[in-house]
What we know:
With 329 residues, this protein is of the alpha+beta class. 27% of the residues lie in helices and 29% in strands.
Amino acid sequence: xxxxxxxxxxxxxxxxxxxxxxxxxxxxxxxxxxxxxxxxxxxxxxxxxxxxxxxxxxxxxxxxxxxxxxxxxxxxxxxxxxxxxxxxxxxxxxxxxxxxxxxxxxxxxxxxxxxxxxxxxxxxxxxxxxxxxxxxxxxxxxxxxxxxxxxxxxxxxxxxxxxxxxxxxxxxxxxxxxxxxxxxxxxxxxxxxxxxxxxxxxxxxxxxxxxxxxxxxxxxxxxxxxxxxxxxxxxxxxxxxxxxxxxxxxxxxxxxxxxxxxxxxxxxxxxxxxxxxxxxxxxxxxxxxxxxxxxxxxxxxxxxxxxxxxxxxxxxxxxxxxxxxxxxx
Length: 329
């Protein structure tokens, strides 16, 4: 089944210049969309926005249930501290709020959970209450981003691994690994290729994950990871911004940082190139009530633009596809 054939059944247009597709209802229901539809469309476009369908939150849950296996409850998530942590919604263990959902700051482009061995392939978003102003979900194609980086930046990432380093104080490590049992935390870390140590004097758990910042998808090289997001987070702690704006922090130090594989800080020129280049390639989802978005997390980065302080509710689910979809390597 080809995407161009499906466009005859479901009207489509780009989500924003050069990325994704808006799948309009045209009188159809969500249950008219089969896994075969979604497989072909997502492989072709990377991001799908389902708009104009009649449903509520339960309808979103049912639709995503039909198309997803192995939902994540965000165990091991990198930002499970203070007001950044996600909350369960409506009694569903895998229907969650977005990171820092009550805050108005933006979130840099990133791939979801690339600080562990198996990042989820699918990200679902649902506009329960769209923001009044700003707050757009941002998008960037990982292959386009890699190609647009300076040759010296590309070379640095080809030649160097990156390392995500967590230092989780008492309270933070229990929230992150969703257990107060150290043996369970160790087993979880081992199953996700994290090297974990525990300091009994301070009650701090340290965990490290080393990997490439680059992935290969359908023979294309992608820049997709959590490096920029986590780097900017550490800068927020160093500048004092985090202490002023993130109530409930248990530590004055950023609980997760990114380093080169040898433990040194990432070169400033490399980070600046990533930041400036991704800004040029950023596209946006302008939310409408009831919108459902599906992102191939092995291909497309996402983030969030700054927003007003008004009410908004964008829900998220993470998991694997219940249909054919290539994986990044």
